[in-house]
Write a structure and sequence with these properties.
It contains 10 helices and 17 strands. It is α/β, with parallel strands linked by helices. Strands 3, 4, 5, 6, 11, 12, 13, 14 and 15 form a 9-stranded mixed β-sheet that branches. Strands 1, 2, 7, 8, 9, 10, 16 and 17 form an 8-stranded mixed β-sheet that branches. Helix 2 (41-52) packs parallel to helix 5 (188-201) and helix 2 runs parallel beside helix 8 (373-390).
Length: 432
């Protein structure tokens, strides 16, 4: 898992990464309008959005740009904030629900626009299929289609009947699908590396290997590292699953959970076309979901198995390969060439936490994307920049209205309690 190392996980993404310049550690006392902590999608894109608005920005990353989930994830660019947001109407009202639904669509478009505007080379491909594990799930897709139509969703969407599933996936385990050509997949590490280069071109100063040791709150926030300090009018915490105890007022609201991916050897054109004929991203509906896609060089990238125990499998490939073979038994003789994992930030209600600290209104944060961060990070980055630059943001206000509980049990018992809760959901799933 490489949690203690500043080096990137030995993933397929690292092996196929574009330029990865090493940036210096913070070694002086500096000032800026805004200090951003965290060099993943949230931090880098907040820096871009702030710099575009004319603010000076210093970004501090404890390890390397894209070291965390941003550079390790499944690379699935899928519409939505995550889960069904209609349940939050009691907090945000029906208008707020409509805003969140639209934000789930617009956030994907934002990523696409950023890639096109700056010519970022990250293997973006459009097309996604949501997979039904049961006939009940497939029946629910009709309601999803109707909801998208009501929102005026422009990209092509269509149902795929059980008997037609070979059109989208070479597996017999699914009860139907929903194709969405407005979602897709990409190389996440190359995206965040490209975005970091964009940030620097806009004047953002980035320091790697600069873990923050202490925050001193006030009208000017002091951010202390081992060999330097940043003083800034505003602070953005973009650490997600790696915040740890840096800001106690946010600790315990996000639980780090392990997610894992394997990558096969390159497949022949014939095999790749049989597995995923339209080169779609695919994801099923299980609690411990499977997600998979083809890489640009035709490897199958197969991920899932969210772990809440705090313990990672000793042999990720040994753990994940049987899951892959349940879906694709035809790959029994195919070699696994890469295996890696990472930590995603899970919230109790599976909704991202975005806002500013009540006690310190010049401290902003975004975290807890619960496995749906590729697009939502970019959207939240824009909201944070709006809030800092203009002093207010409608979207930031709406996100902030959703309450978030602290996981019970303290630091020691949070993970075991959640693991027990997720086991209950899995048992319920198995018994129907």
């Amino acid at each position: 898992m490489n949690r203690s190392s500043s080096d990137h996980a030995r993933s397929y993404y690292l092996a196929s990464a574009n330029a990865m310049p090493r940036r210096p550690a913070l070694g002086a006392d500096l000032t800026a309008d805004v200090c951003v902590i965290g060099g993943g999608f949230t931090g880098v894109n907040t820096a871009i959005e702030l710099a575009q608005r004319g603010l000076s920005v210093i970004l501090l990353e404890a390890r390397r740009i894209g070291w965390g989930a941003s550079g390790r994830n499944g690379g699935q660019l899928i519409r939505g904030i995550g889960h069904d947001v209609s349940g939050f109407a009691k907090y945000v009202g029906e208008e707020g629900v409509r805003y969140l639904q639209q934000a789930g669509i617009d956030s994907v478009a934002l990523v696409g626009e950023r890639i096109r505007e700056y010519g970022i080379d990250c293997d973006l491909r459009w097309g996604f299929c949501e997979l039904a594990n049961t006939p009940v799930q497939f029946a629910a897709f009709q309601g999803e289609l109707e909801s998208l139509a009501a929102l005026g969703y422009a990209p092509e969407t269509r149902l795929v009947a059980p008997q037609d599933m070979a059109q989208v996936v070479g597996s017999g385990v699914y009860a139907g699908g929903l194709v969405d050509m407005g979602s897709g997949h990409l190389h996440p590490l190359n995206l965040v590396l490209g975005e970091a280069a964009v940030a620097e071109s806009l004047g953002v100063r980035i320091f790697e290997n600069s873990p923050v040791l202490e925050l001193v709150h006030g009208d000017t926030v002091q951010v202390r590292c081992a060999s330097g300090t940043v003083r800034a009018g505003n602070l953005v915490l973009a650490c997600n699953a790696h915040l740890e105890e840096l800001e106690p007022k946010l600790s315990g609201k996000v639980l780090p959970a392990g997610s894992y991916i394997i990558a096969t050897e390159p497949l022949s054109v014939e095999v790749a076309d049989q597995l995923i004929p339209q080169n779609l991203a695919l994801c099923d509906q299980k609690v411990g979901l499977d997600y998979y896609r083809l890489s640009a060089d035709r490897r199958l990238l197969f991920g899932g198995a969210c772990h809440y125990s705090g313990r990672d499998p000793v042999d990720i490939a040994g753990y994940m390969r049987p899951k892959m073979l349940k879906v694709f038994p035809q790959l029994v003789d195919t070699a696994i060439e890469f295996q890696w994992g990472g930590k995603i930030g899970i919230t109790a209600n599976r909704f991202p936490q975005v806002g500013r600290l009540k006690q310190h209104p010049n401290v902003f944060y975004a975290q807890g994307y619960s496995g749906h961060g590729l697009n939502v990070t970019h959207w939240c980055a824009r909201l944070l920049a709006e809030g800092i630059h203009a002093g207010q943001s409608k979207g930031l206000d709406i996100f902030s209205q959703v309450p978030h509980m602290t996981f019970p049990g303290g630091k020691v018992w949070r993970s075991p309690l959640l693991a027990l809760g997720m086991l209950w959901y899995r048992v319920r799933e198995m018994v129907g």
